Amino acid sequence: xxxxxxxxxxxxxxxxxxxxxxxxxxxxxxxxxxxxxxxxxxxxxxxxxxxxxxxxxxxxxxxxxxxxxxxxxxxxxxxxxxxxxxxxxxxxxxxxxxxxxxxxxxxxxxxxxxxxxxxxxxxxxxxxxxxxxxxxxxxxxxxxxxxxxxxxxxxxxxxxxxxxxxxxxxxxxxxxxxxxxxxxxxxxxxxxxxxxxxxxxxxxxxxxxxxxxxxxxxxxxxxxxxxxxxxxxxxxxxxxxxxxxxxxxxxxxxxxxxxxxxxxxxxxxxxxxxxxxxxxxxxxx
Length: 285
What we know:
Blueprint: E1 2-9, E2 17-24, E3 27-36, H1 51-66, H2 73-92, E4 105-114, E5 117-123, E6 127-132, E7 137-140, H3 146-161, H4 167-173, H5 175-182, E8 194-195, E9 205-210, E10 212-218, H6 220-227, H7 234-241, H8 246-260, E11 276-282
Antiparallel strand pairs: 1-11, 2-3, 3-4, 4-5, 4-8, 5-9, 6-7, 6-10, 10-11
Helix pairs in contact: 1-2, 7-8
């Protein structure tokens, strides 16, 4: 598989997404995307641009070390989480964290080649799209929080109609509901997410991709081009992303929509824009 394109762009002051790959651009052996979870603590406590960005940076460094060998995906995740736990203990020692501190977390999709086939793991609501060599498409995009996200977007629309436009103000108002929802992370009946907790290893989704023709990994900020703005459907997003400069065109199109709807009236959503990242891999032709 070759690296056909990659893009990662912040929506605010800090990009809490991340991506990486191993091998060479002409022969990629593993690739991943991260989507750091927006903090609701009122301030950042860790080193770096944000607490989520700190976790994404540390996790990226661990994958550069772990994903290059022949470790099974489950073992890669176990070692990744072990490394994050050690990182967390090292950086949080001595910090005066509030009792209700919301720890940093991130969504992760990792695709890796084993022999001639590919496998993937997924934690959270980032997206994995695959075109098989027979032309059939596979898609993994379902979010475990769709009902809550729709409710949150509706409530945010009411606040914006009343003149409350600042996202930080909205985050502060809805922090109790967000914290309640996040309490279900990596628990039975909840949803999986990458964090510095051994519980994260039990909630990953594993997929056997077989012999894929092409693979698209992207965060939900990039997938907004489909599920929020209807600029593409799944297959046209996949096809466009695989073209020369395609991921940049998709990003430009969705940013244009967001810029034209800053109050989120045409397309109801909690945040006017989100960090967006995509990695497109293409097989030989």
